[in-house]
């Protein structure tokens, strides 16, 4: 975990982001219990979620407005203008932002000029605010990925302002407090090192909590997804345009009639649907049946736009770069089996994207209805940016080439790929040395995850789980409270 120099300050002034709803308010209340705050800027979807903390001044900002790039009632003449020095220092952020904003292009393409203007507005507003309000803490409920929060996060990093967010493990009920998503999972390493010494004898049983034990048993004995996703293979593979959409249209008419008639009359909506139909048809026209007797790397595509790819994938948010790098280093006769994500729509995809992939001789498109676990079981390795397919693969003793940053990037069997040398060395280890992760080491890693995190329940199904959820929320707040103690003791 990165460290910050906690400079002497007169008052803690904070930005809170996405602590929406009464449950999240419990975390904030506990995190800042008996602590005096100067300025608190709370970014949520509703003003009613203003945190219950002891602050001299609490300002609410609409997340909806910020996602749209809107700053209502702002007199820009009073805000410090941008200069070349800051723009250049934030160039990496700008590149990520221009890609990330694609998630808001549902109503039509956002021209480059508009994208960049939104970025510059965000940059100007938050650079001025951080300085003028003397902000010295940023706390987010999740990793930054919604454009404006990415700008705030990167600006805070540049200025040395302590920045924290909650990392949700997703595959199990666990949560950690982190400072940098690029080193996500680093907090597990001290716990893992300690456990490796404690359980150096492989015959010693490694105890796990019930949720972690259940995850281990399922992933090592059954073909069940680590994180469930809505499947659309049947929908997407329908051949006729009208039959593809009429059931969905009828459902919308029944439950959201106003939206149905609005969409029915929208040229943009029909244009998007036609584009998606043509894309899926193009993909389906170029699939091949998998040959499980020949060696291959399984590389399922990520849905885009998504946090898992942008910002967590960095340069590899362009997934064709992954396939090009793999193709350059795999042995002759090894193929790359690609399967499209079942929930992928028309955003971030085009026929040109598929054509670029098909230009790589070793790339083969797999039918959408091909069983992902069968593809995984028969593969020599799995390649992913940060997908749950990576953690599913290592528990099936398959090595993984990982091109992004997520909590399991330091797990056994994971090869972190950033350079051509990384990829070359990983391929050698997999195909020549035939290295595979061991279940003993993976169980140790799960134990490290358990020991270095706080239990967390997203959606309780029973009264008992609701009681546990309340306890876990308070515990999460206490961890934040303890972590931030150095910042407040400087007062």
Task: Note down, in words, how this protein is organized.
- The chain has 491 residues and is an alpha/beta fold.
- The protein folds into two domains: 12-186 and 460-483, no CATH class; 219-447, Glycogen Phosphorylase B (Rossmann fold).
- It has helices spanning 21-31, 63-67, 84-89, 91-100, 112-132, 148-159, 188-198, 210-221, 233-236, 241-255, 257-264, 267-285, 319-329, 351-358, 372-377, 388-394, 420-431, 439-451, 463-483, 485-489, and strands spanning 12-17, 37-44, 55-62, 137-140, 163-168, 174-178, 296-298, 335-338, 363-365, 381-384, 400-402, 414-416, 454-455.
- The chain has a seven-stranded mixed sheet, sandwiched between helices.
């Amino acid at each position: 975990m990165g460290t910050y120099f906690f400079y002497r300050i007169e008052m803690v002034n904070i930005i809170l982001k996405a602590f929406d709803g009464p449950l999240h308010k419990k975390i904030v209340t506990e995190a800042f219990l008996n602590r005096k705050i100067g300025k608190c800027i709370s970014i949520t979807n509703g003003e009613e979620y203003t945190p219950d903390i002891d602050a001299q001044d609490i300002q609410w900002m609409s997340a909806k407005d910020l996602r749209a790039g809107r700053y209502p009632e702002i007199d820009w003449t009073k805000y410090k203008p941008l200069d070349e020095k800051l723009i250049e220092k934030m160039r990496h952020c700008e590149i990520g932002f221009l890609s990330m904003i694609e998630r808001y292009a549902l109503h039509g393409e956002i021209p480059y000029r508009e994208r960049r203007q939104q970025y510059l507005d965000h940059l100007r507003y938050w650079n001025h605010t951080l300085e003028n309000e003397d902000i010295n803490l940023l706390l987010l409920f999740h990793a930054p990925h919604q454009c404006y929060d990415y700008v705030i996060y990167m600006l805070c990093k540049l200025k040395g302002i302590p920045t924290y967010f909650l990392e949700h493990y997703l595959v199990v009920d666990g949560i950690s407090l982190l400072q940098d998503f690029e080193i996500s999972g680093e907090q597990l390493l001290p716990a893992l090192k300690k456990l490796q010494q404690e359980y150096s004898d492989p015959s010693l049983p490694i105890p796990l909590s019930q949720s972690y034990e259940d995850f281990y048993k399922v992933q090592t004995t059954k073909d069940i997804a680590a994180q469930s996703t809505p499947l659309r293979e049947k929908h997407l593979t329908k051949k006729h345009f009208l039959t593809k959409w009429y059931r969905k249209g009828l459902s919308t008419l029944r439950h959201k009639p106003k939206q149905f008639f609005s969409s029915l009359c929208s040229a943009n909506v029909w244009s998007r649907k036609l584009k998606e139909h043509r894309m899926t048809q193009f993909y389906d026209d170029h699939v091949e049946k998998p040959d499980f007797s020949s060696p291959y790397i399984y590389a399922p595509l990520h849905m885009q736009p998504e946090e898992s790819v942008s910002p967590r994938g960095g340069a590899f948010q362009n997934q064709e770069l992954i396939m090009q790098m793999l193709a350059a280093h795999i042995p002759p006769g090894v193929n790359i089996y690609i399967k499209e994500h079942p929930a992928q729509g028309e955003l971030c995809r085009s026929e040109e994207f598929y054509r670029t992939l098909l230009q790589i001789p070793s790339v083969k498109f797999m039918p959408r209805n091909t069983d992902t676990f069968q593809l995984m079981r028969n593969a020599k390795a799995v390649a992913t940016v940060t997908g749950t397919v990576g953690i599913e693969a290592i528990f099936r003793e398959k090595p993984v080439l990982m091109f992004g940053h997520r909590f399991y990037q330091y797990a056994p069997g994971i090869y972190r790929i950033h350079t051509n040398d990384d990829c070359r060395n990983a391929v050698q280890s997999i195909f020549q040395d035939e290295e595979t992760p061991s279940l003993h080491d993976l169980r140790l890693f799960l134990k490290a995850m358990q020991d270095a995190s706080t239990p967390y329940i997203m959606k309780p199904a029973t009264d008992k789980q609701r009681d546990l959820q309340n306890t876990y929320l308070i515990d999460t707040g206490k961890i934040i409270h303890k972590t931030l103690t150095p910042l407040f003791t400087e007062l």
